[in-house]
Amino acid sequence: MCSTDSPTQFFYDWLDLTDAEQTAALGQLRQQKPALHAQVLPLIHQLQTTQLPHVFTEHANDWVQDHYDYSGQVIDKYRLHQEIGRGGLGLVYSATRDDNTYEQQLAIKLIQPHIVHHLDQRALFTEAQILARLNHPGIAKVYDGGLFRDQVYIVMERIEGQTLDAYLQQQTLSVQEKLKLFIQVCQAVEHAHDHHILHADLKPENILIDAAHQPKLIDFNLTQKLKQNTLPNEDSSLLAFSDQYASPEQKQGDYLTQQSDVYSLGKILQCLFPTRRANSDLQHVVEKAIAPQAEQRYLSVGDLRHDLEHILALRPISLKQHQPVYILRRLIQRRPFYCLLVSLLLASGASFTYAVVDKNHQLSQEKKISENMLFELTQLLFHSKDSHDQPLTIEAMLAITRLRVLSNPDLPQHIKQKMLLALITPLPTPPDDTALADSTATTKP
Prior knowledge:
Layout: H1 7-15, H2 19-32, H3 34-48, H4 52-59, H5 61-65, E1 74-75, E2 78-86, E3 90-97, E4 105-111, H6 113-119, H7 121-133, E5 142-148, E6 151-157, E7 161-163, H8 164-170, H9 175-194, E8 207-210, E9 215-217, H10 248-251, H11 258-272, H12 281-289, H13 301-312, H14 324-334, H15 336-386, H16 394-407, H17 413-424, H18 433-442
Antiparallel strand pairs: 1-2, 2-3, 3-4, 4-6, 5-6, 7-8, 8-9
Helix pairs in contact: 1-3, 2-3, 9-11, 9-13, 11-12, 12-13, 14-15, 15-16, 16-17
């Protein structure tokens, strides 16, 4: 027991002992290696306070740092080459088939043995089999798996590409291009969710961009703690996550749901667009995705993807679908030419309608004026017939007409003015009959 200098290694070995053996081992360690004993005690204390997953999270890297180099080793029908990645759960090597059947570039992930002992091999193989059933261009394929020297290994597709953050540093992408790239990531995560598996460790380092600019998800967290997969009194999960992108419930060791991946995607989206306008659609989407409470987030990655697609297409997002002014503004932004054409048609229609209504009103007024003038003429003739004792002179008729025009409330003012002007105009003097007869006689030969 005291042959190792690693507190994590000692702790794992100590877990396999009986109670009496554990007490004896701790006493021996305190005498022989007091410094190591001081490092092991916090691990045991955490174990006694039911914080075992945190122990693995904080100390899993010890095995990775002191691991054996497997370069050149043959595992089953695969030959390992150089190390291409490492993490708290294990190592990743590039590999090829060693059975001379056909050439295939692969990546093999070796999960450290102590995690295998804690989680149970069957749980890991079950998760690996689920991953193998995933068939999506945005997810690295899983081909095979097995056990080698007490370590579970998983054979995966080897992707020649860059991590998302490195890709963005080398490429200058527009807002639209970033959104399209992120939507592809969402589609891959959504496909995994459709098969009832979470990624549970989404971060830029676990998203590779290949030569065709296709994002691919790697390193699914096989130690994820899912409510639907956990039996009563059985917890074979570890808190393995990236603190910057992990959801609050994942950090607390609670059960994970699809909203946990939604949170991680929201944090990645936040990194993709560090400068966002306040009250913009993108800002609202990010805030919704990274809400502290899971029930406040999008219900699924599909809902998040739909809103991003709507932003890309200049359509209203679901968070503002009850704002008429916003919906109209989005419509104008999306179809400016058609909106202008419709506006012109509406303006033309309104102008035509106004012209027709105005003309009808004008005709109605003219008809009314004509009827009033006809009425005045009728009344004038009636008064002329009613004067039997004394003939009605023209001056009297004009005076009567003038009074009736002034007292008529139905005649417009400008018509009254014209009629009164005509009434006060002097009548031409009729020619004398005698002078006319003389003029006629003179002209005869």
